[in-house]
Specification:
The structure holds two protein chains of two kinds. By secondary structure, chain A is α/β, with parallel strands linked by helices. Chain A contains 17 helices and 20 strands. Chain A folds into two domains: 235 residues, Rossmann fold; 153 residues, 3-Layer(aba) Sandwich (Rossmann fold), CATH 3.40.50.300. Chain A has a six-stranded mixed sheet with strand order 6-7-8-3-9-10, with helices on both faces. Chain B is an all-alpha fold. Chain B has a single domain, classed as ABC transporter involved in vitamin B12 uptake, BtuC (Orthogonal Bundle), CATH 1.10.3470. In chain B, strands 1-2 form a two-stranded antiparallel ribbon. The longest helix of chain B is centred in the C-terminal third of the chain and has 35 residues. Classes of the chains: A alpha/beta, B mainly alpha. At the A-B interface, helix 10 and helix 11 of A face helix 8, helix 9, helix 10 and helix 14 of B.
Chain lengths: 505, 336
């Protein structure tokens, strides 16, 4: 552990636990932060980093555990409490008021007031803002409106805002993901400057080279558990990755070997400006192709481009050897493609509709009889068959989608797309946020479908799922395909290394 | 298993409770009881016919409005569309008295279709928010009424007996006007609940993104909603000038608010995705009863408007409270 002797920790978390709907997001996490250090927090998607940050900033309250601030136990019930303790967070998407100017944003909530009249002391406000901006090396007029600033400038305003109420702890949650290289360098030099002035900084990043370039210490989380804390100078990237993924694969994954058929989907040079570039791959009959990567790798955008939700700018798509142009999901459906979206509540379901109506939505035309009348009996029968097959647990088909559990909602979404009898199935995070039982059922279903000749493209951020289910694995990083592995050669470490590597080289 | 047995036992209650219109129906019943105690004339056949005649046109327009609101939109131009179609048809039949009433009705619907299409195109192709689009066309269409008529009226003596008689007659003791509104309601009910297009309209109003991902042409269906609203307004316009035997420049000014009120009171959510034809009819009925009752129970005309608003609010609040209660017991049922 930590060899150096440092000053007293300003913040210490002990045995923090937090569960959401039965999933243990944090299972006893310890964390320590000292003044004048940059402490990186790393882990896979879902390791619990964000939840931990939300506990520190008072967004979530822990179920158990203790938070010590300067050695004193504190209870942080809301973000205002956190602010009073001098804890400030900046996120990758800054949360500022676009129509107010920089100074107004910096002092939002604590404008300097004149003594007797309680009027806003505008001159003081702008003077102080200008001083803070100068300290941060920012060459901007505090009267500039925030709308129109670059993300990097917005983050600087956020930092200035944190400084304005004397933040002692600054949390930077993936601040670099949308910045250019020079902006990152600038942000880092500001971070170092603040550290040298005694601010404690928590730094979250998916990019390991940033962790090594900036942080003093690093804490690793995995599946909600605390793995360890090291001095960055005493650890190698390989060791860190091993800490992040170090779990044993169990036999939860029933993927059977399937003889693969011909290419059913071929994508070449698919590009959407500013989102992803040059995506090329082939998908075979009976194959499960895993698409791995970290959040923000733009995997969902690629899937949505293929399905026609947000078509790509350039590139070619072939289905069964025929070149096709897909401009709308309807066209993708007609070609035998189905897409089970990542966010089932937003993209997958019509929550106030019942199960039957949700299931039959993409294939309504099939039930239209004379004069457009919908044959509701046939509809119900179709819904009954598929939901029985997928073992959807509900009081009845009349039940509204909004009343179902996450696992059952996901099964309804799957049912909906399977009724279209697709030959190409794109699954976007098919098991995110659902219980273990349903998860196993979904995996078994995928295996069965593949053995029946369906071609499956599976986006997943869970490495065990990727490794367990895929015949072949593509890895995306920042909008590009960076590597691919066969089932035999893939390891968690190799995938993580490809997914966390920088594309700036 | 026991789950099934329990479900059966509770299902009748749940069905009644689950119907969205229960709250407003109860409120209407209460209102009827109270008013009939105060005024014996209220529940006579001729008064009931009056009320129904009064709300027939309102419910036709409100049904179109409801379809637009279900898509998350709003149509503020309904009254102007109605007036413009009415005026255009009125002027045409005054110079061409040979046009039969049915032809006039079709002409009105055609004009309404054009005006509704303009709204639909602006919303879908122009990406202009519905409230802005129809706020604009509301003024444009009303302006056109003045422009084509030059501020003049089309009077009863410029209309044929058949044309005026169209809304006066009765079929099987049911006034023609009520009969027509009934046909519109039945067709609309069938359309919304039993065709794939109707289902898609609910889906896109409820969740446009998910609807698009499910392969639904969102714009096509949105356009259709505005088109239907326009057609129904055109129909309403012809019926209006027939019933009141005059077409005026200020015909139906403010009527869009009544149409929106009827839809919303009837349970059509302004957030889109929910609302039913029976609900809209009940909403129109409530509005009609309130207006009728207030003149029967001798409330000072100065207070009429305020009391009318108060009763409408009371209806909506009762309905909201009731349906929240029911939903709670229903969802408790669902998770058991």
């Amino acid at each position: 552990m930590d060899g150096e002797i440092r000053s007293e920790p300003i913040l210490k978390l002990v045995g923090i636990r937090k569960a959401f709907d039965g999933t243990q997001a944090l299972a006893g996490v310890d964390f320590e932060l000292c003044p004048g250090e940059i402490h990186a927090l790393v882990g896979e998607n879902g390791a619990g980093k964000s939840t931990l940050i939300k506990v520190i900033t008072g967004v979530h309250r822990p179920d158990a555990g203790e938070i010590l601030f300067r050695g004193e136990p504190v209870v942080i019930t809301n973000p205002l409490d956190a602010q009073r303790l001098g804890i400030a967070a900046i996120y990758q998407e800054p949360t500022l008021f676009p129509d107010l100017d920089i100074a107004e944003n910096i002092f939002m909530g604590h404008y300097p007031l004149r003594r007797f009249t309680r009027r806003v002391a505008w001159r003081q406000l702008y003077d102080q803002a200008a001083r803070t901006l100068r300290v941060l090396g920012m060459d901007l007029d505090p009267r500039t409106r925030v709308r129109g600033l670059t993300v990097a400038q917005l983050q600087m305003v956020e930092i200035a805002k944190a400084l304005s109420f004397n933040a002692r702890i600054l949390i930077m949650d993936e601040p670099t993901s949308t910045l250019t290289l020079s902006e990152v360098a600038e942000l880092f030099s500001t971070a170092r400057q603040l550290r040298d002035a005694g601010t404690a900084i928590i730094f979250i990043s998916h990019r390991l080279e940033e962790v090594f370039g900036l942080a003093d210490r690093v804490t690793v989380l995995r599946d909600g558990h605390y793995v360890g804390t090291c001095n960055v100078s005493e650890v190698t990237p390989d060791e860190l990755i091993r800490m992040m993924v170090g779990r044993t694969l169990n036999d939860l994954f029933p993927k059977s070997d399937v003889k693969q058929g011909s290419v059913v989907l071929r994508v070449e040079g698919l590009t959407k400006e500013g989102v992803f570039r040059d995506i090329s791959f082939e998908l075979h009959q009976g194959e499960i192709l895993g698409l791995a990567g970290l959040a923000g790798a733009r995997r969902t955008d690629v899937a949505q481009a293929i399905f026609g939700v947000a078509p790509a700018d350039r590139g070619k798509i072939w289905v069964d050897g025929q070149q096709v142009a897909i401009r709308h999901p309807k066209e993708a459906l007609a070609l035998g493609i189905a897409y089970v979206p990542e966010n089932r509540q937003q993209h997958g379901l019509i929550l106030p509709m019942n199960i039957t109506h949700n299931v039959t939505l993409p294939i309504l035309q099939q039930f239209a009889r004379m004069g457009g009348w919908l044959d509701s009996r046939a509809e119900a029968q179709t819904a009954q068959e598929i939901t029985t097959r997928l073992d959807v647990r509900a009081a009845g088909l009349w039940q509204l989608a909004s009343a179902l559990s996450g696992g059952n909602q996901q099964k309804v979404v799957l049912a909906k797309w399977l009724t279209t009898r697709p030959r190409i199935l794109i699954l976007d995070e098919p098991t995110r946020g659902i219980d273990v039982g349903t998860k196993a059922a979904v995996h078994e279903l995928m295996s069965t479908l593949a053995s029946q000749g369906m071609a499956i493209l599976m986006i997943s951020s869970e490495l065990p799922e990727i490794l367990g289910m895929s015949d072949r694995i593509l890895v995306m990083n920042e909008g590009r395909l960076v590597n691919q592995f066969t089932r035999a050669e893939a390891t968690q470490e190799k995938i993580m290394l490809a997914a966390t590597g920088s594309s700036s080289a | 298993m026991s789950v099934i047995a329990r479900k059966k036992r509770r299902s009748v209650l749940l069905t009644i409770a689950g119907v969205r219109e229960t709250g407003i129906s109860i409120f209407i019943l209460l209102l009827v009881v109270v008013v009939s105690l105060r005024s014996p004339y209220f529940l006579t056949v001729s008064n009931i016919k009056d009320v129904l005649m009064d709300i027939a046109i309102l419910s036709i327009v409100a049904i179109g409005e409801a379809m637009v609101i279900i898509t998350r939109g709003i149509d503020l131009s309904v009254a102007s569309t109605l007036a413009l179609a009415g005026m255009a048809v009125g002027m045409t039949i005054s110079s061409h008295p040979e046009i039969p009433p049915g032809g006039a009705l079709l002409m009105g619907m055609g004009i309404g279709a054009v005006l509704g299409s303009v709204n639909g195109l602006l919303v879908t192709k122009g990406h202009i928010p519905p409230i802005i689009t129809t706020l604009g066309t509301m003024s444009i269409y009303r302006g056109l009424v003045f422009a084509i008529s030059g501020g003049a009226w089309v009077d009863a003596d410029e209309m044929t007996k058949e044309f005026i008689g169209m809304t006066k007659g009765e079929i099987l003791f049911i006034p023609n006007l009520v009969f027509m509104a009934g046909i519109v309601a039945i067709i609309s009910y069938y359309f919304l609940n039993h065709t794939s297009t109707g289902r898609q309209i609910y889906a896109l109003g409820s969740n446009p993104t998910a609807a698009r991902v499910a392969g639904i042409h969102v714009h096509r269906n949105l356009f259709l909603a505005y088109l239907i609203s326009g057609i129904l307004c055109g129909m309403g316009g012809v019926l209006w000038i027939s019933r009141y035997a005059s077409a005026q420049s200020d015909t139906a000014v403010g009527f869009e608010l009544q149409a929106i009120a009827a839809a919303v009171v009837g349970g059509v959510s302004t957030l889109g995705g929910s609302g039913t034809i029976p609900g809209v009819l009940l909403g129109s009925l409530l509005l009609g009863i309130v207006v009728n009752a207030l003149s029967l129970v001798h409330i000072s005309p100065f207070w009429k408007l305020a009391v009318q608003g108060l009763i409408i609010l009371a209806a909506v609040v009762t309905d909201a409270l009731l349906s929240r209660r029911l939903q709670q017991s229903r969802s408790a049922e669902g998770t058991s």
